[in-house]
Amino acid sequence: MDKPKHVLITGASGFVGWNIARHLAQLGYPVTGTYNSSAPDRFLSIDWLHIDLADPASVAALREVPFDAVVHCAAMPGVKQCAEHPKLAERINIQATREIAEIAAHRKARCIYTSTDLVFDGRKGGSYAESDTPHPPTFYGSTKLQGEEVVRATLDEHYIFRLALVYGTKEGAFAGFLKWTHEALKAHQPLSLFTNQYRSPVAASDIAEAVARTLEQRPPFGTYHIAGPERLNRYEIGRLFARIFGHPQTGIRESLVRGPSGEPAADDIPLNADTFRDETGMNFKEVISGFESLEGELSESD
After folding, report:
1. Which of 25, 299, 85 shows the shortest CA–CA distance to 175?
2. Is 5 helix (H, G, I), strand (E, B) or coil?
């Protein structure tokens, strides 16, 4: 199959989806992006379509979009939110994923489904490869794993991207966990960050480039870990961020993630991205390089 002629991106108004939509539009792809609760960025050179994944009739409107590749980013992402609203989480993360996969299969379109490192429980004691067996400790992770299984069962031509902790910007401002980290440090507020929660942070811009390379190079279908090369805890990430962006580090305090009974929780889920690198030649940025690359993306107010 040649380079896609039209790419559908669900959740294009969200953090990860926006970065992918911007990058593909800059590369010249015709893109349709969906939005729901987050307002669309009208400065992006893409077509926008309102879709509510909680409503099957709304999802069905995607049948009218002439796409031959879909990047499915839209989801109910919060661990707490999914635990508090399990039926809605199942509807959005599993059932709507099935409907989108079925539409893609009918159109004979390739699909990239964005999953999460939280399909793992953090008890391995080392970085996770694609061959490791998932065991999600949260309801959110469970719904995303079931979404993976739906995509595998529905589409032969699929890619599942398990994303590590994502950092970056959106529309000229910090997004994700960097947003509240920056706001706290800028206001000289104390900031408690976990020392026992380890991830392999990945730049949103690198995820966008990984999608572009997948569409262009067409590596073997299957599951890939999309992650930075370092194993860092939140405290280490916060101190690096403060150093790069000129914030004092004195207000950053160490804390622990704790389990339901109060004991320190196993939360060590770095991902190994060697498979994607070997297939595409892409090297993911270290955090310092990633942070430095963000400076040119910020508006003057940040």
Report:
1. 299
2. coil
Local confidence pLDDT in tens for the 302 residues of the chain: 578 899 999 999 999 999 999 999 999 999 999 999 888 998 999 999 999 999 999 999 999 999 999 999 999 988 899 999 999 999 999 999 999 999 999 999 999 999 999 999 999 989 999 999 999 999 999 999 999 999 999 999 999 999 999 999 999 999 999 999 999 999 999 999 999 999 999 999 999 999 999 999 999 999 999 999 999 999 999 999 999 999 999 999 999 987 665 655 668 999 999 999 999 999 999 999 999 999 888 875 56
Listed in sequence order, the residues at least 6 apart from 2 whose beta carbon sits closer than 8 Å to its beta carbon are: none
Cβ–Cβ < 8 Å for 112, 214: yes
Provide φ and ψ at 267, rounded to 5°: -145, 65
E strand spans, the chain: 7-10, 31-35, 47-50, 69-72, 110-116, 158-163, 166-170, 173-176, 191-194, 197-199, 202-203, 222-226, 232-233, 252-255, 267-268
Measure the CA–CA gap between 141 and 75, rounded to whole angstroms: 12
Give, in order, the Cα–Cα distances in Å from 266 to each of 87, 228, 257: 27, 20, 8
Quote the CA–CA distance of 21 and 112 in Å, as a whole number.
13
Distance CA(116)–CA(299), nearest Å, equals 29
0.90 surpassed by pTM: yes
Separation between Cα atoms, residue 206 and residue 209, nearest integer Å: 5
Structural domains in the chain plus CATH codes: 7-168+200-229+271-286 (3.40.50.720)
**Which DSSP state fits 296?**
G
